[in-house]
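Lab notebook, bench 4. Still working through the backlog of constructs that have no structural model yet. Next entry is a single chain of 300 residues. Request: give me the structure tokens for it.
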Amino acid sequence: MNQSISYTRQLFDKDTILHLRIPFSIYLFPVFWFGISQSLNIHAIDVLIVGIVLHLFIYPASNLYNSYMDKDTGSIGGLEHPPPIKRSMYYTSIIVDVAGLLLCALTGWKNVLLVAGYIAFSKSYSWDGIRLKKYPLWGWLSVMFFQGGYTFMLSSMTAQQQVDMSWFTMANLEGMLIASLMLGGSYPLTQVYQHEEDGERGDYTISYKLGVKGTFIFSCVFFALSAIVCYHYFTTWRTLTDFFIFVACLSPLIIYFNWWFVRILKDPTEARYKYAMLMNKISAACMIICFTIIMLKDRL
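Model written out:
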């Protein structure tokens, strides 16, 4: 018994828990919440379970696995000063993934398959045998789809208990596109402060290839595209009011992005960790508020 407790403590020691970066999951919550907010019927219990599975198990396990594979010494998302990596973190990441899948089984085997699909992506993104993140285009596209459109699909299917081909309507496909475009624009910004470390490791991310200023221009284009698609989506499938709510709620993010971009144009070294994390916080807060208002508006 004592030996088992000791081994458990080793697997879940302070350093390992820090590398799980559980608070960082809040930055991935907006896409999940977007999918829920656009669902006509919400099965609350399934949504709660899958939400817990993703944000307290699967995303943290992915963070830990990524940390183990990268052996980061510099700042990473949600952890400015990461502690040293050790072998036990690999096993902990697998245990947390399995625990998440077992909990997800309470909502049905189809949801388990969907979540397993995300796990497969996260492992292939970091695992040395495939390591999608070292390929600028494929790494970016995979994150854009799985953390964007795929997560929107997963959350919406869960909310409506509709894990089948009938879910793929034009409205839902456009929702997936919006989620993917938003992720496609925001993800490169999370990499602007770690170009040097990525380059030394051979991970030539799309942000590394574009450079600091190029990353901001690239993201600006994708944000503009997502706004255009959002206008069509809301005016076609929802209401013009919803689009105005979307624009109003995201205005603080737009202001911050432009403020940071101006600083970057004057001095590229302003691509700092603290600015990237602040943008994540503003973005998450703005989008959560936006989709909450839209969801409540339709139900009150």
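Notes after review: The chain is about 75% helix and 0% strand. Residues 206-237 form the longest helix (32 residues). Flag for follow-up if needed.
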